[in-house]
Amino acid sequence: MRDEYREKLKTKKKSDKKRRWALLIIVLAFISFTVIKSDIFHFVDSDNGKVEAYIVINCHNLWKNNNEALEKKEKAYLIPDKGQILKKEKYIMKKGETAFDLLKKATIDNKIHTDYKFVKAYDNYYVKGINNLYEFDGGKESGWQYYVNQKYMNYGASNYNLKDGDVVYWVYTCNGGKDIDFEQI
To answer: What is the domain partition of the chain in residue ranges?
Structure first.
């Protein structure tokens, strides 16, 4: 009987040892998976699919020039002090969103009138007016242009995907962009 008892005890010890090893392996696997998973998500979604971008909307040139064309159209009252329609404002955007998406979001949030139309030939949106100031209101070469990080973009704003830290400027020009001076904005 003693031998039987010893045999059961040995079997139980082996079984307990196997259970402990199995439990240890499960715990280690869980810990490893949790660490790897958090590292993967931190790496893939470190910014959570978001982009931090800034926007400025300015018509300084109209303000500076006290534009006669606007006086004739009775629109001079639309020009805020120093032409600052929207001072530099930060937005958190989704990756893949564009400079045009940022304009729409900022103007909606700040209740700034914006008028635009889709131009099929360019597969893009054309901004006709911001704050009720339209193309040709300030002369034959006037209208809205956009710049990213003070660089003129020669393609539509809905084709420019925002990058982290971008500063998008929507600036009213009176002479086709020759009057843009970022020192004044």
So the answer is: 1-46, 50-173
